[in-house]
């Protein structure tokens, strides 16, 4: 068989393994399709002015073509999907966030300069002159407009009727002609007018003298003229009063002659202004530093409390005289199996200041009813209590595993020397498990440093810090503070939020490097 194949000039594997050949063809076809799809995305983003996304997919498509096109890089094909996913979902968002932090990107500086200019040029105003009240009539199955100047019945009143609305297709102007009286029949109600609002807003009515009328309200047509006119130097002229709007490319706004900025604007580079604002603006620096300190205190106390509870419970579960250990382990670890958001919402109801079970018990036993959600100190205490409940099962599992690895001879020697349970706990157990536990404690600190879910679901960052120029609360962490600036503030200052997010990233990177060093991993 080999001889026959060789006489025909065919490689042996092509005849013996056709499935492999078809698989190779399918893989090549899939690779080509993915490359073409990424190139289409490159062109689409480039045409929309999103050059960063266009560059991302250009690099992704080129890498895909090179890795799957060269046989020498075959070993890299298996890891390429993971690297591509990390690049698209981790590295690119990080670089994009850092880039935004050096701009004035916000809800008022969101569009490109070309789109902002187009928005200004699309604005219209009602010209001085005739305005007509209108009504809709059904005439022989056709819908027509009847227009009448205000003050119907007085001398000099003008009455106009349009051709059928169906003749105004594809933006074609619709002619109106003078009439003596309103059409016979009953006019359509306001509900029908609202139902046809999109059609009416797209109409351009032309009177016999050439005046163009556009919809100026749910019951009115009037002469509508373009408000702004573009000048050769890039400025805009307001046709109502002759005011000139000059594009200020340092601030990203059109500015009037009096220095007033008109929105919307466009993003421009501002350098380190957002970072400087964090530390120099008193209305931002004060809340930021307060939230910064609370973030470290919250993460540190959470780790300390969860470790203390988990360590004590793990030590008790190792007590040989304790019966039913399996039941206790199951019950103590059970909170770890409940989704965190469910536990948080349950605690939110329990801490309710008026109807919560905790306040009902405190009021009946001690005669007090704490304001958990309005008093800053109590709100922070509540957060620590809830987070300790959520985090202690994790520490319990870690401590149980590490305590199992301690040689029993040490406890027997301690018993010979007269050591009791507390001596064993603090002189033997804790020192031996603390060193291997340190990297995990740092990881837990980093997790709680960015514990957004707890803050968002339990307190929302409130109570608010008085005098802050940005949304800031006494229970906010840096991550929730960043979220509120970006998505809950009226100005939605994405540039400032990105600067704070970049600082958070640098802090987490520092914690990660410390974790690796303590784990004795070479970096």
Task: Compile the SSE list and pairings.
Elements lengths: L1 H6 L4 H5 L1 H30 L3 H19 L10 H21 L12 H10 L1 E3 L5 E8 L2 E7 L10 E4 L11 E5 L11 H6 L1 H5 L3 E2 L5 E6 L2 E3 L1 E3 L1 E3 L5 E3 L5 E5 L4 E3 L5 E2 L10 H8 L1 H36 L7 H13 L2 H11 L6 H10 L9 H29 L3 H9 L4 H29 L2 H7 L19 H10 L6 H25 L5
Parallel strand pairs: 5-6
Antiparallel strand pairs: 1-9, 2-3, 2-8, 3-4, 4-5, 6-7, 7-8, 10-11, 11-12, 12-13, 13-14
Helix pairs in contact: 3-4, 4-5, 5-19, 9-10, 9-19, 10-14, 10-16, 11-14, 12-17, 14-16, 16-19, 18-19
Structure, explained:
- This protein is an alpha+beta fold.
- The chain folds into three domains: 13-100, Methane Monooxygenase Hydroxylase, Chain G, domain 1; 124-226, Periplasmic binding protein-like II (Beta Barrel); 279-518, Orthogonal Bundle (MetI-like fold), CATH 1.10.3720.10.
- 55% of the residues lie in helices and 11% in strands.
- It contains 19 helices and 14 strands.
- Strands 2-3-4-5-6-7-8 form a seven-stranded mixed β-barrel. It has a five-stranded antiparallel sheet with strand order 10-11-12-13-14. A two-stranded antiparallel ribbon has the order 1-9.
- Residues 236-250 have a biased composition (Basic and acidic residues).
Brief descriptors of the model:
single chain, 523 residues, alpha+beta, Methane Monooxygenase Hydroxylase, Chain G, domain 1, Periplasmic binding protein-like II, MetI-like fold, 3 domains, seven-stranded mixed beta barrel, 19 helices, elongated
């Amino acid at each position: 068989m080999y001889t026959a194949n060789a006489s025909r000039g065919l490689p042996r594997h092509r005849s013996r393994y056709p499935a492999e050949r078809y698989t190779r063809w399918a893989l090549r076809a899939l690779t080509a399709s993915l490359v073409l799809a990424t190139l289409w995305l490159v062109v689409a983003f480039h045409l929309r002015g999103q050059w960063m996304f266009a560059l991302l997919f250009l690099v992704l498509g080129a890498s895909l073509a090179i890795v799957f096109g060269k046989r020498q890089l075959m070993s890299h094909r298996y890891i390429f999907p993971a690297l591509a996913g990390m690049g698209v979902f981790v590295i690119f968002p990080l670089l994009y966030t850092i880039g935004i932090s050096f701009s004035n990107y916000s809800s008022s500086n969101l569009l490109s300069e070309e789109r902002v200019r187009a928005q200004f040029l699309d604005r219209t105003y009602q010209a001085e002159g005739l305005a007509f009240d209108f009504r809709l009539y059904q005439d022989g199955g056709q819908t027509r407009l009847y227009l009448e100047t205000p003050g119907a019945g007085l001398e000099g009143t003008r009455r106009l009727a349009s051709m059928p609305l169906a003749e105004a297709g594809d933006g074609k102007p619709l002619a109106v002609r003078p009439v003596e009286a309103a059409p016979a029949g009953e006019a359509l109600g306001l509900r029908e007018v609202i139902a046809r609002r999109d059609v009416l807003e797209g109409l351009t009515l032309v009177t016999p003298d050439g005046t163009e009328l556009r919809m100026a309200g749910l019951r009115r047509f009037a002469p509508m003229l373009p408000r702004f006119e573009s000048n050769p130097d890039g400025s805009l002229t307001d046709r109502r009063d002759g005011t000139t709007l000059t594009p200020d490319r340092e601030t990203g706004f059109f500015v009037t002659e009096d220095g007033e900025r008109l929105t919307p604007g466009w993003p421009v580079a501002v350098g380190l202004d957002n970072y400087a604002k964090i530390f120099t603006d008193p209305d931002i620096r004060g809340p930021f530093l307060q939230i910064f300190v609370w973030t470290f205190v919250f993460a540190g106390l959470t780790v300390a409390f969860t470790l203390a509870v988990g360590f004590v419970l793990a030590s008790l579960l190792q007590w040989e005289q304790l019966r039913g250990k399996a039941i206790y382990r199951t019950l103590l670890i059970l909170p770890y199996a409940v989704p965190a958001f469910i536990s948080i919402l349950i605690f939110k109801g329990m801490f309710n200041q008026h109807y919560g079970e905790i306040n009902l018990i405190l009021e009946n036993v001690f005669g007090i009813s704490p304001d958990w959600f309005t008093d800053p100190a109590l709100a922070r205490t509540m957060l620590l209590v809830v987070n300790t409940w959520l985090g202690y099962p994790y520490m319990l599992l870690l401590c149980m595993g590490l305590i199992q690895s301690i040689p029993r001879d040490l406890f027997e020697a301690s018993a010979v020397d007269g050591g009791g349970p507390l001596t064993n706990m603090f002189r033997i157990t804790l020192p031996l498990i603390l060193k291997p536990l340190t990297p995990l404690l740092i990881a837990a600190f980093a997790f709680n440093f960015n514990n957004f879910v707890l803050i968002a679901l339990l307190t929302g960052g409130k109570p608010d810090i008085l005098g802050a120029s940005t949304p800031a609360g006494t229970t906010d962490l840096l991550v929730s503070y960043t979220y509120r600036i970006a998505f809950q503030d009226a100005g939605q200052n994405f540039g400032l939020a990105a600067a704070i997010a970049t600082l958070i990233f640098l802090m987490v990177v520092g914690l990660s490097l410390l974790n690796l060093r303590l784990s004795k991993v070479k970096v």
